[in-house]
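lol ok so funny story. i was supposed to be doing the assay writeup but got distracted and ended up predicting the structure for this chain instead. priorities right. anyway since i did it might as well share w the group, maybe its usefull for someone
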Amino acid sequence: MANRRIRTMWSDLNGLTHGRYVPAGRIDHPTHHAVTTLAMSTAGEILPIAGYAADVGFADLTATPVLDSRRPGWEPDTDVVVCELSFGHAPLPICPRAALARAVDGWRALGYEPQLGFELEFYVMAPDGEGGWRPAAGEGHRVYGVGLGGDPTGLALEYFDRAEAMELGLEGVLTEFSPGQMELNLEYGPALESADRTVIAKEMVRELAATRGYQATFLGRPDAGGAGSGLHINLSLSTAHAAGGPGANALFDPADPDGLSMLARRCIAGLVDHHEAVSALSAPLVNSYKRLMPGLIAGYWANWGLDNRISTYRIPQERAEATRIESRVPCGTASPYLAAAAMLDAARLGVLAELDCGAPQVGDADAEPNTDRHTPHSLGEALTALEADTDLVDAVGTDVTAAYVTLRRHDLARWEAAGEPWDPTTISAWELDTYLPYY
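and the output, tada:
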């Protein structure tokens, strides 16, 4: 039975959500909020992003519920629903969800329907007794553990039960590589619908932990002694949407020695070609680049591989309808909408340019990489790479990328003003104090 209260949700350029509680009977009524929200830092500073700040008098955007996204929430008597944003009676150009919608439309114009599946990695943190936080780890931690072998908090079962009750398309919950780290996997689905479920899931994960006195964080590297947390995105393309569901998987070719179609190879080529710029939209924080390093099994190298986790664009071993491209670049803090838009647009550019993906990485890419290209070593370098990649900027949207870069450079300036030295092997107090309350 539907609940009496609705929590509306929409995402900003910092990868955070906003919304309003409204009576269930008003779900078909749009709500209005200052568009300035999308020109604000996490600290509440309003940045001078032309067209969306004081120059337009802090005008309203309109948040219209996507009725098909309504589902039971995790708060008492409350459903949740995702909103699409408009401004001046047109889609809001700097809305992250709108960027993904444009990327989907780009593929539909070519006759394909993008399907996405997300893997959410995060740490559960416990109070350290000194006013800070530490990974909530048990003594018997095991990679891919369950029960006491992975989760001394009992949150894994709470996440399992709540995700099922919310109909989020749960595939499973497990412990990841490092003590205190978990992963929640969601089923494939149409791109926008899948990203919506992921945005909702991230909020649920953090808020359920908070009710138990823990802090769940998607921060790329909250603990220097542990592995990083990613938001892996799995992409497939179906032939033109058929009545009742998608058509055949267009990335599969049974006649190819690797089972990959030419479409798949050109998608891979586009991702590799735009790798540096894709990272900027997929790794949004100063801290994100302490995960994107050799030796951490993250999306560092500009390469691809057949069931090779040390390559960045991995082709898992399943074929036929399960054929897919996994991007290991996105940080856990990435906006699912922006990271997915960047992936879809980069892959489409590879198809349009008929690029060649070259040979796959074989073996250990960290020891013997088949390329000298890799993700930038810092947020500043990544933003410069994004601005230089005009093809990807045009594809994702010039307004949304310009606003995003402005916000990210402001974040970088805050870091620089703090006077913290850049040391990728340590996690500073500034990073934890600045990011943990939000990510």
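Residues 122 and 305 are 25 Å apart (CA to CA). The two ends are 32 Å apart (CA to CA).
back to the writeup now i swear
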